[in-house]
Amino acid sequence: LDFFPKIVQNIAKFIPTTHITYTPNELLVHFSYSNFANALIYEIYSVIFLGILCYIIYKKGVKKLNVTGI
């Protein structure tokens, strides 16, 4: 992400996939406890956000589900 322009970096910071791949590698190269705490917070945010998104999609899918037979 460091080679992208600042505006793209700011957008990418809020995408959950960035924190799955980029953040652990960045911690391996430049470890600090403050970066680790930030990474942990973002990972928790990502899990909660994607969990809520999956729950909403699941509920919409169940409403349209039609099962026939035994």
The protein's oligomeric status is single chain
Tell me the span between the first and last alpha carbons.
53 Å
Report mean pLDDT, rounded to a whole number. 86
Rounded to an integer in angstroms, the radius of gyration calculated over CA atoms is 18 Å
Tally of alpha and pi helices: 3
Bin the helical content: over 70%
Question: Which structural class best describes the helix and strand composition?
Answer: mainly alpha
Gross morphology is elongated
**Could you give a short account of the major beta sheet?**
none
Q: Note the run of SSEs as H and E.
A: HHH
How many beta-strand runs? 0
Proportion in β-strands: under 5%
In the predicted model, the low-confidence regions spanning at least 5 consecutive residues are none
Describe the structure.
There is one protein chain. The protein has helices at 6-12, 16-29, 33-64. With 70 residues, it is mainly α. Helix 2 runs antiparallel to helix 3. The longest helix is centred in the C-terminal third of the chain and has 32 residues, at 33-64.
Topology:
Layout: H1 6-12, H2 16-29, H3 33-64
Helix pairs in contact: 2-3
